[in-house]
Amino acid sequence: xxxxxxxxxxxxxxxxxxxxxxxxxxxxxxxxxxxxxxxxxxxxxxxxxxxxxxxxxxxxxxxxxxxxxxxxxxxxxxxxxxxxxxxxxxxxxxxxxxxxxxxxxxxxxxxxxxxxxxxxxxxxxxxxxxxxxxxxxxxxxxxxxxxxxxxxxxxxxxxxxxxxxxxxxxxxxxxxxxxxxxxxxxxxxxxxxxxxxxxxxxxxxxxxxxxxxxxxxxxxxxxxxxxxxxxxxxxxxxxxxxxxxxxxxxxxx
Length: 253
Fold this sequence. Notes:
Layout: E1 5-8, E2 15-19, H1 30-38, E3 42-46, H2 63-74, E4 79-84, H3 86-97, E5 102-108, H4 119-133, H5 137-148, H6 155-172, E6 195-200, H7 205-208, H8 210-217, E7 222-226, H9 233-236, H10 238-252
Helix pairs in contact: 1-10, 2-3, 4-5, 5-6
């Protein structure tokens, strides 16, 4: 199955693939979608399984495998991967396992492959689980929006995150089982692409520490912390985040 996706921009432009947070779906990239295409990039934004318009899996799969299959389907040999949170985790897996397919990584508050939950993420997961076990999907979606969006996010951003997360919860209930394959172990030093890893000063410690860790493990990687950002900067200050992405992409093209 090819996961749900959109494509825009010139067919011969350098490819940029936008990988969403697990709290969201491909709609989170709406503020960056047109500006990247107008800058000359061929822009792809997929939905991971159970998110947006991609259904729950019925056979073994991996999210990074789904992205590779999508690239093959679109005839894209190499792409810059822009990953938010869990999307950053998927991007890192792809860049380490298939470095010849990845020409750059822009990671916004990324998760790490194999990351062990710290106290803050454990507390979040316990609170979310309690709401889901009580059947309060809307309350769990609201909890996610409040927890992950930083202080600069407006009500439209909150409403969008609530809608995207609620959709994911609802689709997950249709799953017939857990078909996700075990995540492979990777060596971060295998990443050869240029890397920009961005953290948010208002994010939880589990994610705030990741950019510096990546800079210490991946040769040439750059870490930067945004003093205004929470966990989803592309929705909190869309124009500023788009500018940062275009600055990173310009020399790669």
